[in-house]
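Figure 3 (text version): C-alpha cells given as input.
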C-alpha cells in the first residue's frame, strides 16, 4: 500500500479560508483506500484547538532548529471520515485568530515546512509521496532533496506540487532561504532557489517537485502564457512535460440538495418544487420581494478583481431594469463592498448585499437562486460553479480556467448545456450572454428546465479527478 502525505495550511472540516480547504478535504477521501494510505498534515491553529482539542491524540514532541529558527512543537493526530490528520502545535506561530495576514507569515511557513520533516523523522513515518498544496508548503520538495537528502528515507520520497492559484506565490527576501530554511548558498547561486534576486516559494515548488499539477486543464495551458503566468510562465513552460491540469471536484455529501440543511430538500424528481420553495424562503429571509417569476441571481465570492466583481458593479443597474433580483454574499476590496452597498440601498426589495461570509446562507443561495454569476477575470478551477450545478442553479461564467472546463454553455439549437458563458472580459459581453439567458428563462422554460437537469446530473465529485491523481502517484512510485 502506497503512503501519501497531503501537506497543506488548511483543510475542512478543521480550518478554511478558501477553496484549498475543500480540495484537501475531499480528494483524500476519494482515493482508493485499498491502494493508498492517506494522511493529511496541518498546523494546529487556535480555531482547531478550541473546537477539537479534546478529540486529539498526543503523539510526540519535536525540536525545530533551522537557521535562526529555534522552536518546539507537539504532534497530535485524529481520524476524520477515515483519514488521519496529523497536527503540528506551536502556539507562537499558530495560536492566532486568523490563518494568514501576519507580518511573520514567512517565518510561520518556514517553521511549518521544516517541522513536517522533523515530525516524519520522530514518528519514523516516511511517505512514498508528499503532495504539497500551494506556496505555503512549496519548499518541502527542496528541503527533502537539498537539505535532508542525507537521510535515505527522505531522499527517496517523491513529490507532487499542486498550484491552486498562481497569483499568490510567497515572494520574500532571499535571506529567508539561509536564515530560516538553512539551505546551502550554492543552490541560490545555481538558480535553483533564486528568483529575480529574491526567494519565491511557488517557483521553488515548481522547479523541485517531481510532478506539478494545477486545478484545471485550461488553467494549466493559460499559466504557460505571459497573460496568466504571473512572471512564472517560462518556468512552467520549462516543466510543461511534467505539468498536469486536473479539475477539482466537491464533496457530494457536504453539498447535496437532498440532505442539506436548506429550506426544502429536493432531487431530480422534484427539483422544480424544491427550487421554488427555497427561492421563496430566501426572498422572505433577505427582504426581497417574494416574486416566483423574477430571475434570482446569486454571487458567492471574494470581492476582488479576479472574481469579476467590477463587472457586476458596472452592470447591476442594467440587470435590475429587468424582472431580476440579485444577492451578493462576500467580502473583499472596499470599493466593491461600497458599490454593492449602494446597489442594495438604491434597490430595496430587488438587491441584497451580505458583507462577510456565512456558510449556511451560501448553501441557501445555491439552493434558492436561479442563476449563479461568476464572471472571473481568471479562475484556476472554481468551486462555486460546481456547487451551483449540484443544486440546479445555472452558472453564468467567463470562459477561463476551470469555468471553461466545467460549464458547458447553452446551445440554442441542440438545447444542450449546463449554463451560460462569455469570452472577452467586459460588461458588454457579460450583458449580451445574460440577455440570452434571460430570454431562455422567460420565453423557453422547457429549455431552462433541461439545463437544470443537465447541471444536476453532471458529475461534480472527485471520483474522476481522483483516478487522474492516482495515475500520477503510480507513475512516481512503482508497486
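Below: residues designed for each position.
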Amino acid at each position: 500500500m502506497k503512503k501519501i502525505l497531503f501537506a497543506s495550511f488548511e483543510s475542512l472540516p478543521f480550518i478554511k479560508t478558501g477553496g484549498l480547504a475543500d480540495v484537501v478535504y475531499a480528494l483524500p477521501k476519494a482515493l482508493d483506500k485499498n491502494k493508498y494510505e492517506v494522511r493529511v498534515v496541518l498546523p494546529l491553529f487556535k480555531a482547531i484547538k478550541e473546537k477539537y482539542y479534546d478529540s486529539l491524540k498526543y503523539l510526540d514532541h519535536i525540536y525545530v532548529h533551522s537557521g535562526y529558527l529555534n522552536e518546539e512543537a507537539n504532534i497530535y493526530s485524529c481520524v476524520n471520515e477515515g483519514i488521519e490528520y496529523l497536527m503540528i502545535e506551536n502556539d507562537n506561530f499558530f495560536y492566532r485568530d486568523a490563518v494568514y495576514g501576519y507580518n511573520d507569515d514567512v517565518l510561520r511557513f518556514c517553521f511549518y515546512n521544516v517541522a513536517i520533516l522533523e515530525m516524519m523523522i520522530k514518528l519514523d513515518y516516511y511517505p512514498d509521496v508528499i503532495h504539497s498544496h500551494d506556496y505555503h508548503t512549496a519548499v518541502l520538495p527542496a528541503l527533502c532533496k537539498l537539505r535532508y537528502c542525507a537521510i535515505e528515507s527522505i531522499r527517496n520520497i517523491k513529490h507532487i506540487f499542486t498550484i491552486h492559484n498562481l497569483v499568490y506565490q510567497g515572494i520574500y527576501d532571499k535571506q529567508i532561504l539561509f536564515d530560516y530554511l538553512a539551505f546551502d548558498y550554492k543552490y541560490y547561486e545555481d538558480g535553483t532557489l533564486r528568483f529575480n534576486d529574491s526567494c519565491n516559494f511557488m517557483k521553488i515548488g515548481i522547479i523541485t517537485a517531481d510532478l506539478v499539477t494545477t486545478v484545471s486543464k485550461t488553467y494549466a495551458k493559460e499559466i504557460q502564457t505571459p497573460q496568466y503566468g504571473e512572471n512564472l510562465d517560462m518556468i512552467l513552460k520549462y516543466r510543461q512535460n511534467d505539468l498536469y491540469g486536473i479539475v477539482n471536484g466537491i464533496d457530494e455529501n457536504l453539498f447535496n440538495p437532498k440532505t442539506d440543511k436548506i429550506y426544502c430538500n429536493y432531487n431530480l424528481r422534484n427539483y422544480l418544487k424544491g427550487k421554488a420553495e427555497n427561492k421563496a424562503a430566501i426572498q422572505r429571509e433577505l427582504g426581497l420581494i417574494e416574486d416566483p417569476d423574477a430571475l434570482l441571481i446569486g454571487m458567492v465570492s471574494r470581492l476582488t478583481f479576479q472574481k469579476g466583481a467590477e463587472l457586476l458593479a458596472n452592470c447591476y443597474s442594467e440587470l435590475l431594469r429587468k424582472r431580476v433580483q440579485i444577492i451578493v454574499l462576500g467580502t473583499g476590496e472596499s470599493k466593491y463592498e461600497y458599490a454593492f452597498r449602494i446597489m442594495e440601498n438604491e434597490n430595496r426589495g430587488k438587491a441584497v448585499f451580505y458583507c462577510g461570509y456565512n456558510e449556511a446562507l451560501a448553501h441557501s443561495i445555491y439552493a434558492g437562486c436561479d442563476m449563479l454569476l461568476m464572471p472571473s477575470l481568471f479562475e484556476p478551477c472554481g468551486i462555486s460553479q460546481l456547487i451551483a450545478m449540484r443544486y440546479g442553479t445555472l452558472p453564468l461564467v467567463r470562459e477561463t480556467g476551470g469555468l471553461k472546463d466545467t460549464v458547458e454553455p447553452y446551445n440554442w439549437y441542440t438545447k444542450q448545456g449546463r449554463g451560460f458563458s462569455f469570452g472577452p472580459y467586459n460588461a458588454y459581453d457579460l450583458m449580451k450572454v445574460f440577455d440570452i439567458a434571460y430570454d431562455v428563462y422567460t420565453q423557453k422554460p422547457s429549455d431552462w428546465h433541461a439545463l437544470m437537469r443537465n447541471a444536476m446530473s453532471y458529475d461534480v465529485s472527485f471520483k474522476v479527478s481522483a483516478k487522474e491523481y492516482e495515475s500520477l502517484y503510480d507513475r512516481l512510485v512503482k508497486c
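Residues 2-249+463-476 form a domain with the Rossmann fold fold (CATH 3.40.50.2000).
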